[in-house]
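Give me the 3D structure for ATP-dependent DNA helicase DinG.
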Amino acid sequence: MLSEELKDRIRAAYAAVIEGKSLSPRWGQRQMIAEIANALARIPGPGEAPPAEPAVCVIEAGTGTGKTIAYAVTAIPMAQALGKRLVVATATVALQEQFVNKDLPDIKRHSGLDFSYALAKGRRRYVCLSKLDRQLAQGQGESGVLPLYPDEFELPQSAEALPIYTAMLDALGRGEWDGDRDNWPGAVPEVVWFGATTDHSQCSGRRCPNIAQCSFYRAREELTHADVIVANHDLVLADLALGGGAILPEPENCIYVFDEGHHLPDKALSHFASFCRLHTTIAWLQDSGKSLAQGAATLGALEGIRHCLKQLPEQLESSAESLKVAEQVVAGLFEGHEARDGRDEVRLRFEHGLVPESLIPVAGGLAGQFRSLASNLSRIESALEDALEDEHAGVDKGELETWHLSIGGMLGRAESTLALWEAYAVSGEGEQPPMARWITLLDGGGGHGFELRCSPILAADLLNDYLWPRAAGVIVTSATITALNSFERFILHSGVSREARFKAVASPFDYSRAVFAVPKMDCDPGDAERHTAAMIELLPRVLDPGQASLVLFSSRRQMLEVFAGLDDTWRERTLVQGDASKQEVLRRHRERVDSGRGSVIFGLASFAEGVDLPGRYCDHVVIAKIPFAVPDSPIEASLAEWIEDRGGNAFMEISVPDAALRLVQASGRLLRSESDSGRVTLMDRRILTRRYGRAILDSLPPFRRELQ
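Predicted structure for ATP-dependent DNA helicase DinG (708 residues):
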């Protein structure tokens, strides 16, 4: 549905924004507008048949295109015309807040479009009044609620926590705070905040006595009326994993925009991975049994759950004993395996995702036990929810609420542990693609550090189950989606249909203002020791001491060795990642540049993406080597194995495209505005000497080249 009236509305909105903000029209923006409009035109109107092709478009828009304006002035009026909600998902909370606090108000002010918008965050970003009340009622940092993961989150110290909790409650009462962590005026230690917030499994929702004052539900109410909902990738994926409609509107009623969309497949994988730490799960089961014994009188007063409560202690104890047996079996698998490459941990990855025969029956038994445990806890939770609504339950509401939080937390952990054991209860034979399965011994001794993990190796099946066929429409955009000038990498990892619309929009920047250089070197990174020595020698020659430079490494070890090898003068002007927070390193760098001094940042992968140092803040980007992935990732190793099994070449199909994408991202730190200029220097001659090098070189922006 793309009527002439709607086309005119989009054109008028774009023209108004350009004029109102005193911008120049960009060809790339017009290309994006056309692609998005034609893709969303595939969405059927009321009573129309489903489209033959999906309403999905994937757009790579080079830095400086102005993609936010392009997708906003197109998707907002089209969503309104179709009766859909627009959900814009950014990669981080910071980008999310920039979009809702700066970008959208600007677009609304200048475009002539009439729309409402709201910011969506997960429960963990909001204080839970019920937990806050209990913390203060107890007069100490621990409230009697069973911690969801006591092995991972220590309890807050009352001397530290109680003053903060009291101040929070006072601020809420005076209306000076909305319960959003990001709006609290001071810093809150993670452990203190964790004690005053909750998650989906522990929230009693509409049955909560504090529902009328609940910060999360108040914020959620705003979403029901907003034309545009601003979220982040994690929140959208969490909602989809819960079936859709749990936090955000149902996918069928949404048009999604995934900004920084190259992160989407990896974000999806993290939401569907599972793990179990054996020793700490045993401790959790044992501690839960003891705490439940103390609450037996309260819970036992409720009709209909006495039988469930009677079963619970035995279920907890037998599950703990079975986990001890699993520890012994896992310990046997590690015989003869030692830590390598100086790591403290020992990792055992199962080739082709195949679970050892000795572990399958143990996992099957544990899956059955945790399935029964989760079922029993679910019945108890339901009974507690009913009792919270029953004015004549005969049990103190405060105690009921406390136990609802505890049982909900237990149920959430039982279900996540169940998912892990179900994944290990099958051999893995015939899975296409296979799951990655591995076990890590974190502390190297005693069996206490065994951690079992399982993850899909591609997000394609997940997104095909939860996103692509359900959403009304999807727009994926980023400055870096293609690899080696092709969308094939993204299609493989995301599973997006080849019938979707794909478009690469060039950046408006003049890349002839910058140089891409490869200096003469008598070694390459394959010889790590000689390459590090060569960098120590070359850096003082290629860097201008009066300029701002960013030097990017793939290895922390090499970064520290190069820094140690420089003379005192260069070390004094160099800021090293890890010596301070990322934001503090950037602040000090800008401060030095503002004072007229040269400054150098030594950084790793997190400085190669998402760092914005425009103009004089970055004159030179030096990249130590082609950023091939670290080869010890179990997920990437399993993916490479699967590719090879199918007759492919994992290095050329996975490693080279991934490295090319990362190199483009790293090079993208140089030109951040139309007036920027400078140099990118790659200290890796493999881009000139290896057969894959030409493909990587040709995928870079059209810099002027100095290849020695």
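Residues 4-122+219-269+461-505 form a domain with the Rossmann fold fold (CATH 3.40.50.300). Let me know if you want a second pass.
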